[in-house]
TrEMBL record:
A UniProt-annotated Pfam family: Peptidase_M48_N
Cofactor binding note of this UniProt entry: Binds 1 zinc ion per subunit.
Residue positions of the active site: 278, 359
Regions that span the bilayer: 70-91, 103-127, 147-168, 175-200, 294-314, 326-347
Primary site of residence: endoplasmic reticulum
Protein name: Peptidase M48
Cofactor(s) named in the record: Zn(2+)
Family stated for the protein in its record: Belongs to the peptidase M48 family.
Subcellular location: Endoplasmic reticulum membrane
Boundaries of every Peptidase M48 domain copy: 208-413
Length: 416
């Protein structure tokens, strides 16, 4: 058997196995005494509400296990059946131009992926989320979101992909470097225009009304020496009952966006605490560090890609009739799985550390650590978060530390 095919199958099995182990450990812990309601949440959530959050976690984990197993089976079957070659042959029948063939190939691949994943997305939104009272997405909105996402993928992804294909087809040994620079440039432009051109396609952003909340936030950002171009409320409630807050934009274009569900469910002090946490990420340069790390990861990816695009056995492993840049990019993605996993684990380790640092920044600058702790409790209870995740699941998936650990750190800061 082809060594590349063996490696791909082993990597896919490894990825599936890690997910399965994390899921099984999570389910086992949910049924153990270690999953009792944490002391920090007594008086905030009763046993009935906590049991509901555990049921929500259990339902999500089980559903993820089913979809991940089904996805792995379908993918392995597609590889062994030579399905990627079918798509490549179809692309060649549409056009003789190599770059257009690549665009058609990825378009067909995206279409197939959307059709295969659609049943799971429908079930998660309209059955699972509905069962626990979160879903507010209408069928019409669901369809519109899918259409808008596809249009954006074409408008942004197609030019980006065409550029990358051209670089690797025309520039030889310098292709990886030029493709890297080009991709980073596109990413930065998208990040810059997203608050104004992209996010409003999916949600409505209205200025936070004048009043005590706006005054409190403005007073805080001034005291923290942080400039924002606007405070907005996002209509997150039209899709879900969950709450959140985030920053968008760069430089003088930074904006604070609050979900309407968060504004409606928290006190002013709690909301200011959440905003202070987000300000902490910016003031401590977490966003810039993560962006630089992402840019470097992209460069490493393109460099490694340049080494394997001309490797014939990789294409033989997938039953291809010919070698092509567009197919090579997809196949490299499978071989890249272990590197991607390790990079993702390291990124999560750094992200969890940054979350603790942002919490500490918020506690120090507001001098109200208990307000942020209260906000975290309220968010966790209303979002039915898993309050007692298994350490392996945290290690594998979590970009944020478990909420109980964050609350304990904030208590220590408040006491000191």
């Amino acid at each position: 058997m082809n060594i590349c095919l063996i490696l791909v199958l082993v990597f896919l099995l490894l990825a599936w196995g890690l997910e399965a182990v994390a899921s099984l450990l999570t389910l086992r812990k949910l049924n153990s005494p270690a999953a009792a309601l944490p002391a920090e949440f007594k008086g905030v959530a009763d046993e009935e509400a906590y049991a509901r959050s555990q049921a929500y976690t259990r339902a999500n984990v089980r559903f993820d296990m089913i979809t991940e197993t089904a996805g792995a089976v379908v993918l392995v079957a597609a590889i062994l059946a030579g399905a990627f070659n079918w798509l490549d042959v179809a692309a060649m029948r549409v056009t003789e131009h190599p770059i257009l063939q690549g665009l058609v190939f990825f378009g067909l691949l995206g279409l197939v992926n959307s059709l295969v994943s659609m049943p799971a997305a429908v079930y998660r939104t309209f059955v699972l989320e509905e069962r626990f009272g979160f879903n507010r997405t209408t069928p019409a909105l669901f369809i519109r979101d899918r259409i808008k996402g596809a249009v954006l993928a074409v408008c942004i992804g197609a030019p980006l992909l065409a550029g990358v294909l051209w670089f690797f087809g025309a520039l030889g040994s310098w292709a990886w470097l030029t493709a890297w620079v080009f991709t980073v440039a596109v990413m930065l432009v998208v990040q810059y225009v997203a608050p104004v051109l992209i996010l409003p396609l999916f949600n409505k952003f209205t200025p936070l009304p004048e009043g005590s909340l706006r005054s409190a936030i403005e007073e805080y950002v001034r005291s923290a020496g942080f400039a924002v171009s606007g405070l907005f409320v996002m209509d997150g409630s039209k899709r879900s009952g969950k709450g959140n807050a985030f920053f968008t934009g760069f430089g003088k274009k930074k904006r604070i966006a609050l979900f309407d569900t968060l504004v409606d469910s928290m006190t002013e002090e709690e909301i200011v605490g959440v905003v202070a946490h987000e300000v902490g990420h910016c003031k401590l340069r977490h966003v810039h560090r993560m962006m630089v790390a992402g840019i470097l990861r992209t460069g490493v990816t393109f460099l490694l890609l340049s080494f394997v695009l001309g490797y014939g056995p990789m294409f033989d492993a997938f039953g291809m009739d010919r070698m092509s840049t567009h197919a090579g990019i997809v196949f490299f993605g499978f071989l890249y799985t272990p590197v991607s996993l390790l990079m993702g684990l390291w990124a999560n380790v750094r992200s969890r550390a940054y979350e603790f640092e942002a919490d500490a920044f918020a506690a120090q600058t507001t001098k109200k650590a208990e307000a942020l702790a209260s906000a975290l409790k309220r968010l966790s209870v209303s979002n039915l978060s898993n309050l007692t995740p298994h350490p392996f699941a945290v290690f594998l998936h979590y970009s944020h530390p478990p909420v109980v650990e964050r609350i304990r750190r904030l208590k220590e800061l408040a006491a000191s």
